[in-house]
Amino acid sequence: MNASTLQGQRIAFIGPGTMAEAMIAGLVREGVAAPEAITAAGPRQERLDTLKARYGIQGTTDNAAAARQADVVVLSIKPQVLGKVLPELHGQIAPDALVLSIVAGAPIARLSEGMAHQAVVRAMPNTPAQIGMGITVWTASPQVTKTQRAMARGVLAALGEEIFMEDEVYLDMATALSGTGPAYVFLFMEALVDAGVHLGFPRRVAERLVVQTVQGAAAYYERQQGEVHLAHLRNQVTSPGGTSAAALYYLEKAGFRTAISRAVWAAYERALSLAQNGKPQPPK
Questions:
Q1: What pTM was estimated for this model as a whole?
Q2: CA pair distance 203, 193, nearest whole angstrom
Q3: With contact defined as beta carbons under 8 Å apart, do 107 and 133 qualify?
Q4: How far is residue 153 from each of residues 6, 66, 147, 211, 282, measured CA to CA in Å?
Q5: Which terminus of the chain has a lower count of CB atoms within 10 Å, N or C?
Q6: Beta strand residue intervals within the chain, DSSP E
Q7: Whole-angstrom Cα distance, residue 18 to residue 14?
Q8: pLDDT tens-digit map of 194-229
């Protein structure tokens, strides 16, 4: 993380939720931003006091006041309250400040119009960001300068890895793939643990076996540095007529791939409906 890009910059988090705390913790832990230069704004004083005690930051219940004083304004609110918060920030942000939004389903055009501000970065992190192991896909409006992009990278690096995409269309795709991805993985792990318990393992043992298997498989693939296709690794552990072959045959027969593909597509359609209407539409 390049600390120099954020030194002396004042950062305001509008919405002091879990993801905002993950970013604050990373920025303070890595020395990227001084605690006194960070302000969290939200409606609950108790939550603000908790963050102040943990990280030494400032807190306020006045969103507009926090935004006015900031060089970087991080929008970390829930999508449901965006319609209430945007008018509060309208015209309150300094012209040379950067807005970084992690609000799901909120396109740059809506954010820019709602705040009367042009320099906007839109980002889609995922929940492993809470331990600095996330992956964030982000894009920027044309008005975001090179220096501001570096600032955005500095903030997002507090969450883990980051990938910049020129076209905003990839943000809704990322919402369906990596943003929602942990839920798919957790469901798979949960099912695998339950299967282990059904076989006769104590639950704690089954959980440990599954967690380490998933971690190890991901790490093993990553070490190949993209030179080996996932199918090749799967074939390595699939002996003809063996246990893996029997299990994979059943998964394919049950439509495992199709179910995953349809699930990701359903998440993508929901992300699009949020972006267009600000509220989810019922599934087809």
A1: 0.88
A2: 7
A3: no
A4: 10, 21, 10, 30, 35
A5: C
A6: 11-14, 38-41, 58-60, 72-75, 98-101, 120-124, 134-140, 160-164
A7: 12
A8: 999 999 999 999 999 999 999 999 999 999 877 899
